[in-house]
Amino acid sequence: MKTDRKIQNLVLIALFAALTLIGTMIKIPLPTGAFIHFGNSVVLLAVLLIGYWQGALAGGIGFFIFDILNGFAAEAPYFLVESFVVGAAAYLAFTLFKQKPTRVSQIIVIGIFAGIAKFVMSVIKATVMGMIAGAQFKPAFFAALATMPATVINIFSTILIVSLVFFPLRRAMQLIFHNQPA
Predict the structure, then answer these.
(1) Where are the annotated coiled coils located (predicted)?
(2) Predicted pLDDT at 182
């Protein structure tokens, strides 16, 4: 039965990686060249539904594949790491509710933790990229902040989507996986 559990974990990681890839491919372009997507929502759901390591790995793989397939190969390793950092922030908040949130407000709090981590990681990345391009720290930092509207919109859309679908998905997964033969 231990092998069945390992196979189930691998299948769920692969499923959420594929869903992250698909969610990231559903893009709403912004005038800045950035885009809004649903990949972050899938990653947060993965962390909450299948666990920190599995969910963050699934999200990181999904983002990594997206980046490779869409001309962002240089950024692929960063998004793999970011999935684990944002996932850790979400999981930390998740543990505040003993991994059993019962209200939408608790999911919103978890989303805010994840959103703050995503925002900080995005600012750090954009600042470092600006400094690599030759800017001093202060101009690179303020230029990074100027690119954050798309990130903020992604954060809010992630919180909204996860708040709406977490409880129905958790219930569906409980029904599916608890009704399996032992």
Answers:
(1) none
(2) 43
Could you give the count of Cα atoms lying within 13 Å of 66 in the half-sphere of its Cβ? 25
Quote the CA–CA distance of 75 and 72 in Å, as a whole number: 5
Structure tokens at 73: 């190969």
In angstroms, the CA 179 to CA 175 distance is: 6
pLDDT band at 181 (very low <50, low <70, confident <90, very high): very low
Count other C-beta atoms under 10 Å from residue 132's C-beta.
9
Residue 58 structure tokens? 């699934």
DSSP secondary structure, 142-170, as one string? HHHHHTTHHHHHHHHHHHHHHHHHHHHHH
Tokens 């925002």 locate to 119
Strand partners, 158: none
pLDDT digits (tens, 9 = 90+) for 12-70: 999 999 999 999 999 888 787 778 899 999 999 999 999 999 999 999 999 999 999 99
Cα torsion through 105, 108, 110, 115, rounded to 10? -160
* Ramachandran angles phi, psi of 28, nearest 5°: -115, 105
